[in-house]
Design a protein that fits this description.
Length: 740
C-alpha cells in the first residue's frame, strides 16, 4: 500500500478545516482581550463615580446639615473663647471655608454620573461614548474642582482649629456617627479630601480607557481629547499646589531670631548670595541680559503706591488727632483762665458757660471722636499695613529667584559659547588634508567634519530648570494674589476714608451745637466790638509798645516787627527793588566754543538738537534753548526709566525729556532758534525765608533770584523754583516781587 485511502485523506482535510475554524488568529484574540479589559475599565469608572457621589452626598447630609443646624450653639462656644485669643473677635463657624463649594462639586459630579450611566447601561461597547460624556462635562468639572482644591488647605487648617475645641469636636462627631451608618469613614478630613483625590484620578482612568480602545472605535478621538483635558486639569491643580507650597515656605510670620539666621549660614547659602550679588552687579552695568515682566512691574508699582498712600493717610490722621488734642486742651485752659479773670464780674455766669462748653469739647466730644476714628479708621488700616509684610517678603524672594534664573541662563550661554569655541578649534585641526597612494598620486583624505552640537551638562540643565520653575511659581502666584490684595485694600481704604469723613462731619456738627448758643449770651450781644482780629491787633501792638518803658526790656526786643510781619506784611515797608543783574554766561547758555567741544567729545550719532525750549523744573534737570546742541551721555535715568535722558550741553550736565530732542542733521543751523531766545526773568525777595528742607532755598530781603519754574512738580503755583548763584530750590511765590 503506497498511501492512505482517498476517503481517509478527505476526512483528514475536513478535520483540519474544522480545527482552523476553532482556532482564530492572534489579532482576533487581541481584540477580544482589549474589549474585555475596556468593559472592565468602563464598569470601574461608573462604579467608582457612583460610590464617590454617594460619599460626598453623605458628607453634605451628615456634616454640613448637622453643623448648619447647630451653628448658633457652636458660635456661642467660639465666642466664649474669644477673650482667650488676645481679645480678638470670634468669627463664628465658617462653613463657607470649611466646605468650600462642596454643593457645586456635588451637582457637577451627580450630573456627570448620570450621563455616564446613560452612556453605559443598555448600550453595546461600540455605542458607549465615554469620551464624549467626559468632554461634555469637562468645563464644569474644571471650574468646580479647581475652586474646591484652592480652598482645601484653608479648610483643613480651619478643621484642625475646630478639632482642638472638645465641644466643637463633639458636634463634628455627631455628624460622623450618622455617616458611619452608611459608609466606612475615619473623620471629616477623609471626606474633605475625596474631591481632591477624585479629580486627580480622572486622567488615569481616561489613560486606561484609551489604552484598551481600538483605533477604529468611534469614541477613540473623544477619549483622546478627554485624556488631554483631564491631564491639563490635574497638572494645573498640582502646579497651583506647588506654587502655594513654595509661597507658604517664605510666608513665615514674625521675625527670625539671630540664632536661627546664623544657623542657616553654610557654604550653599554663601555661594547663592555671592552669585546673586554678582548677577545684580552685571545687570546694573549692562553686561548681562535680564528677564523683565512688565505686567509684574506695573502690579508691584500699584501695590507700593497703595501702601504708601495708606501709610501717609494713617500718619496724617495721627498727627491731626495730636494737634486736635492740643488745640482742645488749650481752648479748655483758655476758658478756665477767662473764668478766673471774670471771677469778680457780674457776668461770670455767662463766662462759666463758655468754660463748660470748652471743657465738654475737650473731654467728651474729643474722646468720642478719637474712639470712633481709632476703631473705624486707624485699626483696620494698621491691620491692613501689617498684612503687607507678607507680600513684601514674597516680592523680595521673587527678586532673588529672578536673579538665580538669570544667573543660570548666563551660565548656560557661557557653556554654549565654550562648546562653540572648542568646535571651531576642532574644525580647524580637521581641515582638508591630502595623502599619497602607492603610485605617488595625491588623494583627498577627507573634508572638514562638522561636529554635532554638544549637549549641555545634565547638572547645568537641571539647575536651570529648577531655577525657572521656582521663579515662574513665585511670579505667577504673586501676579494672581497681589491684584486681589490691591482691590481688597482699596475697598477697605475707601470705607475707612468714608468713615473718617463721617466722623469729622459728626464732630464738627456736635462742636457747632455747643458753640452756637454762646453767641446768644448777653456778654457777646452787648459787645461793641465787631472786627475782632483788627481790634486785637491794635490792642496787642499798644501793649507791646508799652513794654519799652520798662528798663528791664532789652534793646533788641523785636517781637513787634515779627508780629507785624506775621499778621500783615502790607503794614511793613518792603525793601526797595534792586537793579536787574547783568547776564554773564554762567548759566546754561551755549556758545560756539561749547558746540565745538561737544563735536569733539561725542560721535555724530550721539549729538542731538533741542527742537524746542525746555525749562528745568527739578534741581537735576537741565534747561535748554531751541537749537542748543547736546551730547547724549545715557538714554535713561538712574532708575532705568527712558522718559529722561542724561545729556551734556558743554556747560553743564542734567536730565531732559527725549521729546524735546531730535537727531542733528545738516549742521548746527538745522534747528537754530537763537533769535527766539527767552530772556531770563528776575525777582527779588521782599521778606526773609528760611529753608526747611533740601529742596527749598533760603531768602534774604533784597536777594535777587532767577525764575526757573512758576509751579512745583505737582503744578502748585504757590511755590516757585528759583536759582541763585548756582543753587536751585523752591520758595513761596508771595515772598517775591518782580524787578521792574
Amino acid at each position: 500500500m503506497n498511501g492512505p485511502p482517498q476517503h481517509l485523506e478527505q476526512k483528514l482535510a475536513t478535520l483540519r478545516a474544522q480545527l482552523n475554524d476553532l482556532q482564530p488568529d492572534q489579532l482576533q484574540l487581541v481584540k477580544k482581550k482589549n474589549a474585555e479589559f475596556r468593559g472592565k475599565v468602563v464598569k470601574e469608572i461608573l462604579k467608582t463615580e457612583t460610590i464617590y457621589v454617594r460619599d460626598i452626598k453623605l458628607c453634605q447630609k451628615g456634616f454640613m446639615t448637622v453643623l448648619e443646624e447647630k451653628q448658633h450653639e457652636i458660635n456661642e462656644i467660639l465666642a466664649r473663647q474669644a477673650p482667650e485669643e488676645e481679645g480678638k473677635t470670634a468669627k463664628g463657624l465658617e462653613l463657607d471655608i470649611l466646605f468650600g463649594n462642596m454643593e457645586e462639586v456635588i451637582n457637577v459630579s451627580e450630573n456627570f454620573m448620570n450621563s455616564l450611566a446613560a452612556a453605559v447601561e443598555g448600550n453595546s461597547s461600540e455605542q458607549q461614548f465615554i469620551g464624549k460624556c467626559v468632554m461634555d462635562h469637562s468645563s464644569g468639572i474644571h471650574s468646580a474642582y479647581a475652586t474646591y482644591c484652592r480652598n482645601h488647605d484653608d479648610a483643613i487648617a480651619l478643621l484642625e482649629k475646630y478639632e482642638e475645641n472638645p465641644e466643637v469636636q463633639e458636634y463634628i462627631n455627631q455628624g460622623l456617627e450618622l455617616v458611619r451608618q452608611s459608609t466606612n469613614c475615619w473623620d471629616l478630613a477623609s471626606f474633605l479630601i475625596k474631591p481632591v483625590q477624585r479629580i486627580l484620578k480622572y486622567h488615569l482612568l481616561m489613560a486606561e480607557l484609551y489604552k484598551y480602545t481600538e483605533e477604529d472605535h468611534p469614541d477613540r478621538p473623544n477619549i483622546q481629547q478627554a485624556l488631554t483635558a483631564m491631564t491639563d486639569i490635574a497638572n494645573s491643580i498640582n502646579e497651583f499646589k506647588r506654587r502655594k507650597d513654595l509661597v507658604m515656605k517664605y510666608r513665615k510670620p514674625g521675625q527670625e531670631a539671630i540664632s536661627d539666621k546664623i544657623g542657616k549660614i553654610n557654604m550653599h547659602s554663601i555661594k547663592k548670595k555671592s552669585q546673586r550679588m554678582n548677577q545684580k552687579i552685571t545687570r546694573i552695568t549692562g553686561l548681562a541680559a535680564q528677564t523683565i515682566d512688565d505686567d509684574f512691574d506695573k502690579m508691584e508699582r500699584r501695590f507700593r503706591v497703595i501702601e504708601k498712600t495708606i501709610k501717609i493717610f494713617v500718619t496724617d490722621i495721627n498727627s491731626y488727632l495730636e494737634q486736635l488734642k492740643t488745640a482742645t486742651s488749650a481752648e479748655a485752659q483758655v476758658g478756665h483762665d477767662i473764668s478766673d479773670y471774670y471771677a469778680s464780674q457780674s457776668n461770670l455766669h455767662d463766662v462759666n458757660k463758655y468754660e463748660i462748653a470748652q471743657r465738654h469739647l475737650a473731654n467728651k466730644l474729643y474722646k468720642d471722636y478719637t474712639i470712633f476714628v481709632q476703631q473705624r479708621v486707624l485699626s483696620p488700616l494698621e491691620s491692613l499695613l501689617n498684612m503687607f509684610e507678607g507680600p513684601h517678603k514674597l516680592i523680595q524672594k521673587r527678586h532673588h529667584k529672578l536673579l538665580d534664573y538669570d544667573s543660570c541662563m548666563s551660565k548656560v550661554e557661557k557653556t554654549k559659547d565654550k562648546d562653540k569655541l572648542k568646535q571651531s578649534k576642532h574644525v580647524k585641526s580637521e581641515r582638508l588634508t591630502e595623502d599619497e597612494d602607492e603610485g605617488g598620486r595625491k588623494l583627498t583624505v577627507g573634508s572638514p567634519r562638522r561636529l554635532k552640537e554638544k549637549k549641555l551638562p545634565k547638572e547645568v540643565k537641571d539647575e536651570k530648570e529648577v531655577a525657572r520653575k521656582n521663579y515662574e511659581a513665585m511670579n505667577i502666584q504673586l501676579k494672581d494674589e497681589i491684584p486681589k490684595l490691591c482691590e481688597m485694600s482699596l475697598a477697605i481704604f475707601k470705607s475707612c476714608v468714608v468713615a473718617f469723613v463721617e466722623a469729622e462731619r459728626d464732630h464738627i456738627s456736635s462742636t457747632l451745637k455747643k458753640i452756637y448758643p454762646l453767641l446768644e449770651l448777653s456778654i457777646v450781644q452787648n459787645s461793641e466790638v465787631r472786627d475782632i482780629l483788627p481790634t486785637f491787633e491794635v490792642s496787642h501792638r499798644s501793649a507791646v509798645d508799652r513794654q519799652y518803658h520798662f528798663t528791664f526790656v532789652p534793646n533788641n526786643f523785636d517781637k513787634k516787627e515779627k508780629l507785624d510781619r506775621r499778621l500783615s506784611r502790607r503794614s511793613m515797608q518792603p525793601v526797595p527793588p534792586p537793579t536787574k543783574p547783568s547776564q554773564p554766561n554762567t548759566n546754561n547758555n551755549q556758545s560756539e566754543s561749547h558746540r565745538g567741544k561737544l563735536e569733539k567729545r561725542y560721535p555724530s550719532e550721539r549729538l542731538f538738537l533741542a527742537a524746542s525750549d525746555f525749562r528745568a523744573k527739578e534741581p537735576m534737570e537741565l534747561s535748554l534753548r531751541k537749537g542748543d546742541t547736546v551730547g547724549i551721555i545715557k538714554q535713561q535715568d538712574p532708575t532705568g526709566g527712558e522718559n529722561r535722558w542724561y545729556v551734556d550741553n558743554g556747560v553743564s550736565q542734567g536730565f531732559v525729556p527725549p521729546s524735546v530732542l531730535q537727531p542733528r542733521e545738516g549742521g548746527v543751523d538745522a534747528c537754530d532758534g537763537g533769535s527766539d531766545e527767552e530772556q531770563p526773568v528776575y525777582f527779588y525777595a521782599e521778606w526773609s525765608f528760611e529753608a526747611t528742607g533740601p529742596t527749598e532755598l533760603s531768602l534774604n530781603p533784597g536777594m535777587v533770584v532767577r525764575l526757573v519754574s512758576d509751579t512745583d512738580v505737582e503744578g502748585n503755583s504757590e511755590w516757585w523754583l528759583v536759582a541763585h548763584e548756582g543753587q536751585q530750590g523752591y520758595v513761596p511765590a508771595n515772598y517775591l516781587a518782580r524787578i521792574p
